[in-house]
Specification:
Length: 630
């Protein structure tokens, strides 16, 4: 075969469902950048016209009709370039998830996804119909006839075809067949949610496939917090014959992040400039990168003016505080001060000029003071340690910090109820009630600050607390966003140590020396979370075995016993406590503020784990544990 050289590009886009203006602007910017780089073929992410996360709106025909009109606009921007753009397509009562190929202002065809994502966070078969392999048909739209299906396209003699995201994750992926028909280039528009270490799997799907099928491969993912919960890392990969040619920085703050490379097609192509080595995955780094970008997008897409936080100085609220500070630092590192403040869409021209005039370090601190407001709300049960931790951290990152006590409000409610019931409330008889009223009276004041600031209230619940409902509903669950509800407590504690050491958040030194405590009981009782519950490591292990590995309670017990986690009696108590609290507290998980999906699975009923609100609570299954003799 004669040698052909094609300039190939993939662009990650930060899209938002139904935000036509934003989505089209990003697409236009990507096309303009590609044209200026003499790109022959540009791949844009899955469903990027409408946004991937439109959910049940995909079932409304008007959405696809509107998207088609937008496609006709986009087509006019494609002068002397081939652009692949994701769009839902309604045909005879079915909706298909497609990528449309536009070449020099003409629509060449639509490739429809063949394997729909239906695991974990994905529910695609609810909306889309899978397309059968090897089938191509014609359809009429607005007076024109188009081709749709499993099309093989050609660019300057090079045959190419598609795998749309999930298509590449299946053993009988389309590339298997396409390469037998002479295809030398596979394009993959994706909406592949972020999860820890997942980039490694994608690398293999792309680079190993390019080796196995002896082809070139271009992969382009969505970028940012698109629709609230899922985060996309914006990965762009260009590979050929098992060699990685381009890969971008993941989780950046740009709207458009493009990579391009000239790729040679011949019987024995020369592959210049390959990337031999990718840095090893560091999950702490990944969590911070994903969490902070997710916060920034959530803030600007809700037009909020920063965050408000009830800062106890404990691990969970400290992580939320550091996440906002790191959001500002990373955002400025990625975009520069001017673009960051412009993108935040909340500052006047005069304020923006003020920030721009500051040295970068000062701008970061000044912005943190505007974007993060914290309050310590102590009671007689609070310790100096937690106050010092909260104040020390807030001061060190430059956050606005208030301090007040809530004893008066607690006392006011307690005496009201005591006089209504004609009896005193005591720790002996009313333990949980007296704990919960403290957590609850922290909510109105912090909500007031939130309203005044037009900000978002951060709820600090973590994943381990979520599993067992160790949190007061409408108390410390109050908030508009639960940024760390996907992260377990053991991970949080080591993450904070890492952030102190590696990211130099010195203000974390206080929390890193504290034992987690709710500080809701009188201090002489020395309440700790782990005394109330069980060691967090064990709680997290039970949760994973129960809901990721999907084992029955007795098998969970047996496995942990075999690992020597605790004595049989203690372990039985912990397993029983876990399942009983898990079953009783589904309603709480249903009511948490929206949280981010960070791990390969999580407990969020809206995105991963369905469980009944009313259930038998594993009574019989836990009863079986008593019959196990060892
Ligand atoms: N299925 C269901 N659907 C709807 N509502 C249901 C329900 N089951 C119970 N309920 C309701 O739930 C109420 C109990 O829930 P709730 O009032 O939240 O209280 P509850 O879950 O009983 O207790 C809260 C727990 O969280 C711990 N906590 C609280 C605050 C902070 C921290 C910390 O770590 O800092 C820890 C505290 O030590 C205690 O163990 C019941 O009175 C009942 O009304
Ligand atoms: N003294 C306090 N001042 C302000 N907020 C508080 C105070 N005590 C508790 N809270 C709020 O209630 C939340 C729940 O408390 P919890 O103890 O679970 O979390 P934490 O204090 O951040 O972490 P840890 O459990 O590691 O101590 C806190 O994150 C915080 O938002
Ligand atoms: N949009 C998709 O098809 C995503 C599914 C794919 N398994 C992923 O998580 O990346």
């Amino acid at each position: 075969m004669e040698e052909t050289r094609l300039m190939l590009a993939g662009a990650a886009l930060n899209q938002t469902p139904l935000d036509w203006e934003n989505n089209l602007q990003n697409i236009k910017d990507a096309i303009t950048e590609a044209i200026s780089n003499n790109v022959d073929i540009l791949v844009l992410p899955e469903l990027c016209i409408t946004g991937y996360g439109c959910e049940d709106l995909f079932l409304s025909t008007w959405l696809a009709e509107e998207a088609f009109l937008k496609l006709l606009e986009i087509k006019e921007w494609c002068e002397n370039i081939t652009v692949c753009v994701g769009i839902p397509l309604w045909l005879e009562n079915n909706v298909y998830n497609t990528s449309c190929v536009i070449k020099s202002r003409e629509i060449v065809g639509f490739t429809a996804k063949q394997f729909l994502a239906n695991d974990g966070v994905h529910y695609e078969p609810r909306w889309f119909t899978p397309w059968p392999a090897d089938v191509v048909q014609e359809f009429e739209m607005l007076g024109n006839i188009y081709s749709v299906g499993d099309i093989i396209y050609e660019e300057q003699g090079v045959k190419y075809a598609f795998e749309i995201c999930e298509d590449a994750w299946r053993p009988n992926r389309p590339a298997e067949r396409h390469v037998l028909k002479g295809v030398q280039l596979i394009l993959n528009p994706s909406a592949s949610h972020f999860a820890l270490s997942k980039t490694d799997i994608r690398y293999r799907l792309v680079v190993d496939a390019s080796k196995k099928y002896q082809c070139a491969y271009v992969y382009a993912n969505l970028l940012g917090n698109e629709a609230g919960r899922m985060i996309y890392d914006g990965e762009v990969l260009i590979a050929q014959n098992g060699k990685l040619i381009r890969r971008n920085e993941l989780l950046c703050y740009k709207n458009v992040d493009m990579e391009c490379a000239e790729v040679c097609f011949s019987d024995n192509p020369t592959i210049e400039e390959t990337i031999e080595y990718l840095p090893p995955i560091d999950e702490n780094k990944e969590v911070f990168a994903a969490l902070t970008l997710a916060l920034f997008d959530y803030m600007r897409k809700t037009y909020s003016r920063g965050f408000v936080l009830s800062l106890s100085g404990g691990a969970d609220s400290s992580l939320c505080a550091v996440a906002v500070a790191e959001m500002v630092r990373r955002g400025i590192e990625s975009l520069g001060v001017s673009a960051f403040v412009a993108k935040a869409k909340m500052f006047s021209a005069a304020e923006m000029a003020e920030f721009e005039a500051m040295p970068e370090g000062q701008a970061v601190k000044e912005l943190v003071s505007r974007l993060l407001t914290c309050a310590y709300q102590g009671t007689v049960n609070s310790s100096d340690d937690t106050f010092n931790s909260a104040k020390g951290l807030a001061d060190s990152i430059g956050a606005a910090f208030y301090n007040w006590t809530i004893d008066e409000e607690v006392q006011s409610y307690t005496s009201k109820i005591e006089s209504a019931l004609h009896r005193p409330l005591t720790w002996e008889h009313d333990d949980i009630t007296l704990q919960n009223i403290q957590a609850r009276v922290r909510a109105p004041g912090i909500w007031m600050l939130t309203n005044i600031k037009n900000a978002l209230l951060m709820a600090t619940s973590n994943r381990s607390e979520g599993a067992v409902g160790y949190t007061t509903m409408d108390g410390d669950t109050a908030g508009g966003i639960s940024p760390i509800a996907g992260i377990d407590k053991a991970f949080i504690r080591q993450l904070l140590l890492w952030a102190q050491q590696e990211l130099s958040y010195e203000g974390l030194q206080y929390v890193n020396s504290l034992q987690p405590s709710a500080e809701l009981r009188p201090s002489e009782e020395a309440q700790t979370d782990e005394k109330d519950l069980m060691p967090y490591e064990v709680l997290n292990q039970i949760e994973r075995l129960a809901f990721y590995d999907r084992l029955a309670p007795d098998k969970v017990y047996q496995q942990l016993l075999d690992q020597g986690v605790a004595s049989p009696e203690t372990l039985k108590q912990w397993v029983k406590k876990f399942y009983t609290l898990w079953g009783r507290n589904q309603w709480k998980r249903e009511r948490f503020a929206p949280s981010f999906h960070l791990d390969d699975y999580n407990l969020d009923p809206r995105s991963w784990l369905r469980f009944p609100i009313l259930s038998g609570g594993f009574k019989d299954e836990l009863g079986k544990l008593d019959n196990i003799t060892r």
